[in-house]
Design a protein that fits this description.
By secondary structure, the chain is mainly alpha-helical. The chain has one domain (3-122): Alpha Horseshoe (Serine Threonine Protein Phosphatase 5, Tetratricopeptide repeat), CATH 1.25.40. Helix content is 75%, strand content 0%. The protein contains six helices and no strands.
Length: 123
């Protein structure tokens, strides 16, 4: 399905939230194959939605398809929008792909960001 075949690239917030919650429920219940089309659709409808991108990447990782997850995460890094979760997921993807030096760097960035978040909460 490409964007030209979609009737609208905009879904009402309530519908997007419903798709997101259903996808998370599938992931939490060990059914990433059922979550995948939901997160693919959300990412297709709004490629700038960081949460949709991270959810899609997480789903690919649950399916052990790191090669599918990594380009999504790399795009977030290129766009200078990585979060601690982005670095964690990227580290996991790189580990699955056997790219250990890069995985270690991503995991260090994850730990650094988490520490900064904790410091911000403590003050």
């Amino acid at each position: 399905m490409n964007s030209a075949t979609l009737p609208s690239r905009r879904l009402p917030t309530e519908q997007r939230d419903l798709l997101r919650m259903l996808g998370y429920a599938y992931l939490q219940n060990g059914q990433p194959e059922r979550a995948l089309p939901l997160f693919r659709l959300l990412h297709l409808l709004d490629p700038q939605d960081r949460h949709a991108a991270e959810s899609l990447a997480c789903t690919w990782l649950r399916l052990r398809e790191a090669a599918e997850a990594l380009p999504i995460l790399d795009q977030l890094v290129r766009e200078e929008r990585p979060t601690a979760l982005t670095w964690l997921l990227r580290g996991q993807a790189l580990t699955l792909l056997g790219r250990m030096p890069e995985a270690a760097r991503s995991m260090r960035l994850f730990v650094t960001m988490r520490r900064e978040m904790e410091k911000g909460r403590a003050s």
